[in-house]
Amino acid sequence: MNYEIKIAAELQVKPHQVQATIELLDGGATVPFISRYRKEATGTLDEVQVATIRDRIEQLRELDKRREAILKSIEEQGKLTPELKKSINGAETMSKLEDIYLPYKPKRRTKATIAREKGLEPLAERIFGQTSFDLEAEAEKYISEENEVKSIEEALQGARDIIAEWINENANLREKMRKLFLNEGTFTARVIPGKESEAIKYKDYFEWSEPIKTAPSHRVLAMRRGEKELFLMLDSCPEELSATAVIELEILEHAANSAVDQVKLAIKDSYRRLLKPSMETEVRLLTKKKADEEAIRVFAENLRQLLLGAPLGEKSVMAIDPGFRTGCKLVCLGPQGQFLHYETIFPHEAQWKAVEAGKNVQSLVESYSIQAIAIGNGTAGRETEAFVKSLGLPKSVIVTMVNEAGASIYSASDVAREEFADLDLTIRGAISIGRRLMDPLAELVKIDPKSIGVGQYQHDVDQNALKNSLDDTVMSAVNGVGVEVNTASKQLLTYVSGLGPVLAQNIVDFRTENGPFTSRAQLKKVPRLGEKAFEQAAGFLRIIKAKHPLDASAVHPERYELVEKMAKDVNASVKDLMSSEDLRSKIILRNYVSETVGLPTLEDILQELAKPGRDPRESFEVFNFQEGVNSMADLKVGMKLPGVVTNITAFGAFVDVGVHQDGLVHLSHLADRYIKDPNEVVTVNQKVQVTVMEVDIVRKRIGLSMKADPFAERSKNPNNPSPAPKHAKAEEPQGTMADKLAMLKGKFGK
């Protein structure tokens, strides 16, 4: 099959771009490598396009595998005709392919099979012809003790069973029925009688109905979860009259007669017993897949934004994992994140303990030349922040809250045990809080993305699809930023293009045994890191203190010779070229175009020479919550507060305003204009100003708005005084405690 033309048409690109991409992928190249270093071959396709080609080619190849298996099966049955083969080869979707195969698919013993064994197929054929004849007289011919047909009705029932199966196996009809279910079907949810109190979290779905074609991802997954937990009954069908009408239009050929009456009975039976269950299962799988894709897309985008959060950089950091009764776990870290000191302080106990804690913090700030203090945003976080800020520390010391989601997950993980085998879990958690302030990307890659608290129904979606998407996201983020090979952890190196866990460990071992790498070329000495892996990885690995200046940049080693020629042509060294804008301005890029190097690569090289190894992430900015607002009890409707976006869903964004409970800005309150996707206006970690619209302490719900005048609609309509955004209606029933924390608090780890 000519995959290139089909995929090119779908993506609206040229076939040669797709062909080149497929060849590179088949040759073992990664998505980041292809999009960054093979722009001439692909015609500058970006990461998303390359990944789409990768996934689509895999789907089409799977389709062809199934096609071959079906052709072989039918041929072995001796039933493969030229027309049938043409239909199979022309099928472009898996569902169409399976519809064609259904009549030939080996099946268990059915009602139709039993009827055929009784010799009733000729009667079924006569009836299905729908011509007028003496039905009872014809059926009577099939009464036989030998075939166990005892009556006319039994003969007719057997014939109808056979016809019902024929109707079910009609490929054209199944396609029409599939469209009917998708376009006119309805999701109908009802509470299981007697479970009203247990299922209270699904109250919005006790009597719920909406069209399948418009049901959003989060509601589809919510209803399915309620059904799985045995709280809801869920149907997903069109009206039966509409469905049988479609079948009759396809099947019936004559006006009313006794044979047509029998076919109509068979149609009703076929729909209820065969077509409806089959189509409902298929449509539910299709809608689940679509809902999964949307939920995974939301999760992946949130994760990308979180990973690419602004890093503080290499500074000496004090990290505090706050707590009341058990005290605050405090660690001091060096500029590269190395663990230096640990102790527990009790600033929220007796006054003398608070005084002692303050002295300890002041002493440690001085002893370890602390430049920033990271405080986890969990229990006692705001109180600990206020305590630290009251100590009169030098103004140069940054004090900031850090989202600690997943810190406790990390502290109990194999990764943490490997890094800090001799340290207690609580110490590891504090270290993670400090390190994620210094470099969110480097630290968060150590945690299962599902535990970071930025997902939507992550436990309900296809786990393989979720893992693949999140792995792609992490790899894209890691390679987009670049990795310093001499300080990177094994986990961070694992996501570098072309490496993986084995080579990552080998690099760390080599570094431990031989000291820091002094050049990219030295990577070739790492066991099992061959030419292919080096080609894929080298451009994304940085060696800041390398002898060759380009080793600290994103210029690939395969282009060093080209850059050296550029430098020679302007009578300068590579180092001079990198430091002088005047020298770079003298370079005429078209002079260096060749069969393998075009303007896109040359432009990338010139940009990299200007800012070698540049970090694409935003610069770190200190953020402070509103002083005096530490709990939900402090919130008042109409209050305007600073906040940080912690999670984005299809129906809005969750914002941390410093009260240990994230509030929801519903989609309708994200902007003064209409928006379809929250990502149009907000990103994870974005600092925003919000207005409190609703505070429900009992249900732990906070309604927020980002509109300039969120109460305008209420003032226009005094008969509708409720200021609450529409987040309470069938948006997000809370499931497991883990999901509740992930979605409503955005703090999975605490």
UniProtKB/TrEMBL annotation:
Location of region: Disordered: 709-750
Residues of the S1 motif domain: 638-707
Signal peptide start-end: none
Coiled-coil positions: 135-183
GO CC annotation: cytoplasm
Species this protein is from: Algoriphagus alkaliphilus
GO biological-process terms attached to the record: nucleobase-containing compound metabolic process; translation
Keyword Coiled coil applies: yes
Domain of life of the organism encoding this protein: Bacteria
GO molecular function, one term: mRNA binding
Gene3D superfamilies noted in UniProt: Nucleic acid-binding proteins (2.40.50.140), RuvA domain 2-like (1.10.10.650), Tex N-terminal region-like (1.10.3500.10), Tex RuvX-like domain-like (1.10.150.310), YqgF/RNase H-like domain (3.30.420.140)
UniProt KW keywords: Coiled coil
Protein name per the record: S1 motif domain-containing protein
Pfam families (alphabetical): HHH_3, HHH_9, S1, Tex_central_region, Tex_N, Tex_YqgF
